[in-house]
Specification:
Blueprint lengths: L6 E6 L3 H12 L4 E4 L16 E2 L10 H19 L4 E2 L3 E5 L5 H13 L6 E4 H7 L7 E5 L3 E3 L1 H14 L3 E3 L4 E6 L5 E5 L5 E10 L5 H6 L13 E10 L8 E3 L10 E4 L5 E4 L3 E3 L10 H9 L11 E11 L11 E3 L1 H4 L4 E5 L5 H17 L3
Parallel strand pairs: 1-2, 1-12, 2-9, 5-14, 12-20
Antiparallel strand pairs: 3-8, 4-8, 5-7, 6-7, 10-11, 11-12, 13-16, 13-17, 13-18, 15-16, 19-20
Length: about 375
């Protein structure tokens, strides 16, 4: 590698996707710096989600979401097992609670089959109830490859692999801007107590909710290449009492998201969420009054939900590229063909299934940035 730079590659954002990019680049022998503005890794989108390993059911065939989700899920299970990170391939039921929803879950089955998702099965209502006795189901689809995992343990493992390869993951180190250098590479300004400027041959931006703001801080980045971003907030409620189902339970998706679903977390408790509400600022409060709305929705597939059994848990915000009523777009990985800057990859709209897809995204970013090196 060239020795004129402090680092071969600098990654902005130490969430699951940023760390996976750093790991993939480290595997190729590059020296990597990962910058994180928060005091710990994975404090943004990566720590405020359902920790679900998605099968790849819903996404348009040929899209980055479909490709990365299926590939990333397969790779992720191997990664978790080999590193003894807690996970559970519990399976998922996509449930039609009435005849009117059957066509919607049939469309999901066809989409998932086209995407190469393994092991799918059509279930009658009786077959679904034989698996989950308290479920209200007119029909269902079984996805046995779906599951849950310890996302923080996963991110710690990614960090460890970067550092084992000689890289650095630095927290409390906000990215403040970058300028392309004559002859290639970037001068990267880092804030915080140890404010400094470093040089890097490659630059990858994967900061989740801050993707648009970070891109705007790169000198020469064309404003027209920065997609409009939206904050999609979702809240979760935890069940007080025994978890009713072992498998993930998903009703048909809602516009713009997968909808409020159920999971039995790795600690054995039932959790419901997220819903979707567009917000203007990062607000992680959970309104207890939403419990009644959640309860009405949940009773469609679990009529036995006891009254008063839901308690506010947490909220997450997804970096969406579409507003209310707009079609949901694909992941966006913007390389030189988009913005015209050599050595730069900017990621936008990495929401669900970004966590499941993270290893595959990291490999794709590393392949693109190193193929001509």
């Amino acid at each position: 590698m060239l020795k004129d730079f402090d680092f071969d590659a600098t990654v902005v954002g130490a969430g699951a996707v940023g760390l996976a990019c750093g790991r993939a680049l480290s595997k190729r022998g590059l020296t990597v710096l990962v910058l994180e503005k928060e005091g710990q890794i994975g404090q943004g989108v990566s720590s405020r989600n359902s920790e679900v390993i998605h099968g790849g059911l819903y996404y348009p065939t040929g899209s980055l979401k479909a490709k990365f989700c299926v590939k990333g899920r397969r790779t992720l299970y191997d990664f978790l097992a080999s590193r003894k990170i807690d996970h559970w391939k519990c399976g998922k039921l996509v449930v039609a609670t009435e005849e009117a929803e059957v066509g919607r879950i049939e469309a999901i089955f066809e989409q998932a089959t086209a995407n190469g998702v393994e092991g799918l099965a059509h279930l009658t209502g009786a077959q679904a109830r034989a698996l989950e006795s308290e479920l209200n189901a007119h029909a269902a689809i079984l996805s046995p490859e779906s599951g849950l995992f310890d996302s923080h343990g996963y991110m710690l493992a990614l960090q460890g692999e970067i550092e084992d390869a000689g890289g650095s993951v630095v927290t409390s180190a906000p990215f403040e801007g970058a300028e392309p250098m004559s002859g290639g590479g970037f001068s990267v300004r880092v804030g915080g107590e140890g404010a400094m400027t470093v040089t890097s041959r490659l630059l990858i931006t994967a900061p989740g909710l801050s993707a648009q703001a970070v891109a705007a801080c790169i000198e020469g980045y064309p404003a027209q290449d920065i997609p409009v971003g939206h904050f999609g907030k979702g809240v979760y409620f935890r069940l007080m009492g025994k978890a009713p189902f072992d498998r993930l339970i998903y009703p048909p998706p809602i516009p713009g998201a997968l909808g409020t679903h159920y999971r039995k977390d790795l600690g054995g408790q039932g959790v419901f969420g997220p819903d979707l509400a567009y917000v203007e600022v990062e607000d992680y409060s959970v309104d207890p009054a939403k419990a009644a709305e959640f309860a009405r929705y949940i009773r469609r597939f679990w009529p036995g939900l006891p009254h008063g059994a839901l308690t506010p848990d947490y909220a997450g915000i997804r970096p969406k590229l579409h507003g209310p009523g707009e079609p949901q777009p694909d992941f966006q990985l913007h390389g030189r063909e988009h913005h015209g800057i050599d050595g730069l990859m900017a990621l936008f709209g990495i929401e669900s299934p970004g966590l499941t897809s993270s290893l595959a995204i990291g490999e794709a970013v590393a392949d693109t940035l190193t193929e001509t090196q």
